[in-house]
Structure formats: structure tokens, C-alpha cells
Design a protein that fits this description.
The chain has about 280 residues and is α+β, with helices and mostly antiparallel strands. The protein has two domains: about 5-155, Ribosomal Protein S5, domain 2 (2-Layer Sandwich), CATH 3.30.230.10; about 165-280, Alpha-Beta Plaits, CATH 3.30.70. It is built from ten helices and ten strands. Strands 1, 2, 3, 4, 5 and 6 form a six-stranded mixed β-sheet that branches. Strands 8-9-7-10 form a four-stranded antiparallel β-sheet, with helices on one face. Helix 2 (about 100-115) crosses helix 3. The structure holds adenosine-5'-triphosphate. The site of adenosine-5'-triphosphate (ATP) has 21 residues, from helix 1 and helix 2.
Length: about 280
Amino acid sequence: MEITQKAPAKINLSLDALYRHSNGDHEWRMVMTSVDLADYVHIKPAGRITVTTDSGFLPEDPRNLAYQAARVLQRESGVRAGAKIHIEKNIPVAAGLGGGSSDAAAVLRGLNELWGLGYSRERLAKIGLQVDSDVPYCVYSETALVSGRGEIVQPLGRLPQFWVVLAKPSVSVSTPSILRAFDYDEKHVCPDTATVLAGIKGLDFDLMVSGMANSLEDVTAVRYPEINALKARMLRYGADVAQMSGSGPTVFGLCAKKSRAMRVYNSMKGFCKEVYLVHTLT
Ligand code: ATP
């Protein structure tokens, strides 16, 4: 028996960092959605947990988030069996697209099935928080308002229709180093989350876009000027909005019209090596 789980990339339509808890964790308020750029996680029964990938860059040991997810679920459920996990990696690594978290979430969903646990998504999401703050969202991988330390996931239903162009500059960003540098006493751009939510609810693309922003963007963009250059180029070629995802460095542009998205995509291809034209998942 082999189980294959799709592990889609996520983007942050909005990201607001509200405050730091006394233990250093951040309090988030984010609107997230998933796109059809995905890893594939293959899981087979085995006596112990092993992880392999086709990427060449990723650890194939307990440092891999997929391995950590399997260990946490083993511990929580008391299951003795292991699993042979293989990751077909398509999502760029350390890009702000949540690839590692999505692999971990795919392992939780896949092992829930393989081991016949019957856990709800809520329970898997809670378990996933032990691995990384984006794992609870990735257990759902559907448009949601995410709050708390990442563990409160409220699905939002359908989005207005749009196309997404992703451009990843050739730098890798360490999320912990950006979060350490984030100073709550400084002024940051903030999304208007209520407006983003109202836009989604009314399937009103323009309203959704008018509330979008990412509070981590100025911290990452100071270190990597490529980010603002990519944003400016996307806007110049017709994107309705351009924004960094997560802690970066990937920039995404949203376009209500497919012809515009094609123009943005083609213009970015000559400028940046890793560019993707994708849809949100429905
Ligand atoms: P986040 O914003 O959630 O930190 P990200 O999209 O910026 O995520 P990832 O691709 O998840 O970045 O990688 C973050 C780190 O996690 C990298 O240093 C990478 O080596 C490590 N990692 C461990 N397991 C995985 C995995 N299965 N896929 C990708 N990265 C992994």
C-alpha cells in the first residue's frame, strides 16, 4: 500500500504580526491560501521512519520537517509502526512558500490514513503546531484566516477569481533570522485584515486587494533589495497587486485577468530564474 499526498505551496494574502508572547512566540493574524505548485509526498508502511527526497539540498534525517511530523504523530498516537517517506520536491526551499510545513502536514494526513487513526483535521492541526507554526494551516491547505501562534485556522470558503505569478529571487531567507529582527516598537506596514476578509466574503477582488499587506516585508526587503525590484516590475507589467509571501523572499503578483497574468509572467521570466504562473486551489 502506498499513499500519495499533495503538499501545495501557500501564499500570505495578508500577514500581521500583533505581538510577541513572553516565550518568544509571535501572535499572528494572516489570511492564507494555497496554490497549485506542489510537492508530492509518498508514504509506505515500514518498521521505522525514513525520509528521502529528490532535491539534493534537503536533510534526509530528523532535521527534515516531514520526519519530525511523523515522529510527533507516532508519539501522540502511541503507534509503533514507522513509515518510508519520499518527497518529490517542486516548491522552492526557504522561499516563504511554506514547502517544509506543507510536507509535514502531508505526512500527518497520510499517516492518519495509513495508521487508521481517524483523527480530525482540528486534531492533526494541533499536533502539527509542535513541528512549525505554518503546519496547522497546511493541514487544511485551503483559504483561511490563521491566528494565535498559527493553531487557529478558520476556513473562509471561495476566493474571487484571479491568477498568481510567483517569482523567487535567487536568495534563501532564514525565517528565524527575520523574526528575530522584527521589532514591535518600530512602525511596520499593516494589512487591513477586515477589508481582506470582506473582499473574500463578497467575492470582490478589488476590495480584497485594497486591504492586503505583509508586515514582515520591510524587514526582509531591507536585506534583499531584489524584493522591491521584483514588486516594481510586476506592477509595471500589469499586476493588480505585488507582495512578498511569508518571510520572503518570494514575491507574488495577483491579476484578475489571465492576459495580464501572462504578460507579467513573461516579463518576469527574463528577469528572474524561478517564475511560476499558478492558480489558487479551489
Ligand atoms: P517558513 O516560512 O514556514 O519557514 P519557508 O517556505 O520559508 O517556510 P521551507 O522551504 O519550509 O521555507 O524551508 C525552511 C527550512 O526548513 C530550510 O532551512 C530547510 O532546509 C528546512 N526543511 C526541513 N525539511 C524540509 C522540507 N521537507 N522541505 C523544505 N524545507 C525543509
